[in-house]
Design brief:
Radius of gyration: 29 Å
Catalytic activity: dGMP + H2O = 2'-deoxyguanosine + phosphate; a ribonucleoside 5'-phosphate + H2O = a ribonucleoside + phosphate; inosine + AMP = IMP + adenosine; dIMP + H2O = 2'-deoxyinosine + phosphate
Largest sheet: 9 strands, mixed
Subcellular location: Cytoplasm, Cytosol
Strand order of the largest sheet: 1-20-17-16-3-12-13-15-14
Family: Belongs to the 5'(3')-deoxyribonucleotidase family.
Number of strands: 21
Helix content: 40-55%
Shape: globular
Keywords: Allosteric enzyme, ATP-binding, Cytoplasm, Hydrolase, Magnesium, Metal-binding, Nucleotide metabolism, Nucleotide-binding, Transferase
Distance between the termini: 25 Å
Number of helices: 21
EC number: 2.7.1.77, 3.1.3.5, 3.1.3.99
């Protein structure tokens, strides 16, 4: 709810700024320009009831109206339906985008949950049993309510951790046992981890990690409760055999990789595409519209044969982009198709650029050195290769993917591409956010009660208010909120504290949404404008005038505002600049 307070605080800031301009215009002096402008603003306010019948866009054409429009009379900002919206971390002008890039897995091809995760989970369990793990594991059944993305696995103690951006522990689970504060502090004295210790702490950030996350919890729970094994601080013993949590994690990671690259996961997926892959009839329409305003390319780590089967299914409609238009092959929607990309290596040095024989699926001999040709499928290469072939530079490209590290972070940091993160879980997050608003409001109320207890106390007070009941209630409400999302809580927060995943989204994704299909609901001239991010001293302090007492606040003398202008022309120039600045800011706020 802090974001809501920030928005309200910003609204007050805008209104007070406009009022300040109006008062300045009506200040001392008989300057004709100032008087005329002020009268124009006042006329608008007097005739507000009449002008409300005029369209908002028409009213914005009159520059003199703009400051008054935002002085408490603005219409409520139009927002699209929550499930159709694209959310903005950094402003992005769509008309500046020349190329639209896509990942395939979990972006163009959204795998159905929990069916696809269950398939990956079962195949991984079978692989572990085949290399010597207990047969009892075959009875494990995937539970989608337990795992969430962004958890950290501690390979020393075998714990799944939910942490914030700074490494502070929000939730800790050993198997299916959720540890309490005293238990957590036994292993993490400060309830804190060093995230840069990547040999010990492993971030499970992708949608492909969900079965792996749940399997790790299942294994630890199984060995903890199995009479044949003895639990140790860093693993399990069976007679003279010791299995560390580190080796268990590596076995699971190797099994997952085997299932994806050598096992039957892809084979079973293409055998039943209807069961495992979401098919959206709006996909051809959106890509055809993108083709009209720019170039479209596909970069996937998958091989060509698998890519061709998935993409053929996604575009398998009796018509083209619109009902009545002729059917088009999926390749026709892309100016460039690149498989076997090996992201994130692709965003660095990359690999050799090869050409794919689309009949056999095999690679042609030699490095491809020719120009971009429509219909050719490439293998390997790098992000620099993409830019060269498309004739584009970093900020010309909007890259759309689901992988916070492989797609978003690397493309942003190494190439400066604009980024769009697909977060399928966002639909459920929005549902809980709106449906359980009473819990968020109660947390706000508890903050108010807490502030009231300290209201009349300062450093001279010996009184210690009893806040234990409020603290218990805050913990209870926070827990109830988390349980609305699943056993591990929200992907983005624990109570009022944001998770590591949330901080990465805000840092690296310019835009994000539950699906990139939401771009269909915006014009390609749209300005995605980021909300004003206010610091605590801005979002929690009301915009009321306060006379600063220099005795109380010595730093108040550090004033960088000059008000002494002997030259009236300079003063008039400043007045015009101030009004122009306010007008420009208002116009961009309503764009």
């Amino acid at each position: 709810m802090a974001g809501g307070r920030s928005v309200l605080a910003h609204a007050r800031l805008v209104r007070s700024s406009a009022t300040a301009v109006l008062r300045f215009l009506l200040g001392e002096g008989e300057n004709e320009w100032r008087r005329a402008t002020a009268e124009s603003l006042l006329t608008f306010k007097e005739n507000q009831s009449v002008k409300m019948t005029t369209s908002w866009s028409d009213r914005l054409q009159n520059a003199a109206d703009l400051p008054a429009n935002i002085d408490g009379y603005a219409l409520k900002k139009y927002r699209r339906e929550a499930y159709h919206r694209v959310f903005v971390n950094r402003s992005l002008a769509m008309e500046k985008i020349k190329c639209f890039g896509f990942d395939m897995d979990y972006t163009l091809a959204v795998y159905k949950s929990p069916e696809y995760e269950s398939l990956g989970f079962d195949l991984t369990v079978e692989r572990l049993v085949s290399i010597g793990y207990p047969q009892e594991m075959l009875s494990f059944v995937y539970d989608p309510t337990f795992p969430t993305r962004g958890l950290v696995f501690d390979s020393l103690y075998g714990n799944l951790l939910k942490v914030d951006a700074y490494g502070n522990i929000l939730v800790c689970a050993h198997g299916f046992n959720f540890m309490r504060g005293p238990e957590i502090r036994e292993q993490y004295p400060n309830k804190f981890i060093q995230r840069d210790d990547t040999d010990r702490f492993h971030i499970l950030n992708t949608l492909f990690n969900l079965p792996e996350t749940y399997l790790l919890a299942c294994l630890i729970d199984f060995f903890t409760n199995c009479d044949r094994y003895v639990s140790c601080e860093t693993g399990f013993k069976e007679g003279d055999l010791f299995m560390s949590f580190r080796s268990m994690f590596q076995d699971v990671r190797d099994a997952v990789d085997w299932v994806h690259y050598k096992g039957s996961l892809k084979e079973k997926t293409v055998e039943n595409l209807y069961k495992y892959v979401v098919k959206d009839g709006k996909l051809p329409l959106l890509l055809s519209r993108m083709n009209e305003v720019g170039k479209v390319f596909l970069v996937t780590n998958s091989d060509y044969k698998y890519t061709d089967k998935i993409m053929t299914y996604l575009f398998d409609f009796p018509h083209g982009p619109k009902p009545g238009s002729s059917h088009r092959l999926w390749q026709s929607y892309f100016d460039l198709i690149l498989v076997d990309a090996r992201k994130p290596l692709f965003f660095g040095e990359g690999t050799v650029l090869r050409q794919v024989d689309t009949v056999t699926g095999k690679l042609k001999i030699g490095t491809y050195t020719g120009p971009l040709q429509h219909g050719i499928v490439y293998s390997g290469g790098s992000s620099d290769t993409i830019c060269d072939l498309l004739g584009a530079k970093g900020k010309d490209i909007l890259y759309i993917g689901d992988h916070i590290f492989g797609d978003i972070l690397k493309s942003k940091k190494r190439q400066g591409w604009r980024t769009f993160l697909v977060i399928p879980e966002l639909a459920q997050e929005l549902h809980v956010w709106t449906d359980k608003s009473c819990l968020f409001e109660e947390l706000q109320s508890l903050d108010i009660f807490l502030a009231e207890l300290y209201k009349h106390l300062d450093s001279s007070s010996n009184e210690r208010p009893d806040i234990s009941s409020i603290q218990r209630r805050i913990k209870k409400v926070t827990h109830d909120m988390d349980m609305c999302y699943g056993m591990m809580g929200s992907l983005f927060r624990s109570g009022s504290r944001q998770t590591l995943f949330a901080s990465q989204v805000m840092r690296y994704a310019d835009l994000y949404a539950a699906s990139f299909i939401n771009l269909l609901y915006y014009p390609f001239s749209y300005l995605f404008r980021a909300a004003h991010v206010l610091m605590p001293h801005e979002s929690t302090v009301d915009h009321t005038h306060v006379d600063i007492n220099e005795t109380e606040s010595p730093m108040a003398t550090r004033n960088r505002t000059s008000v002494d202008f002997k030259d009236s022309d300079k003063r008039h120039q400043l007045t015009r600049s101030l009004v122009t600045l306010t007008i420009n800011k208002t116009a961009s706020n309503h764009s």
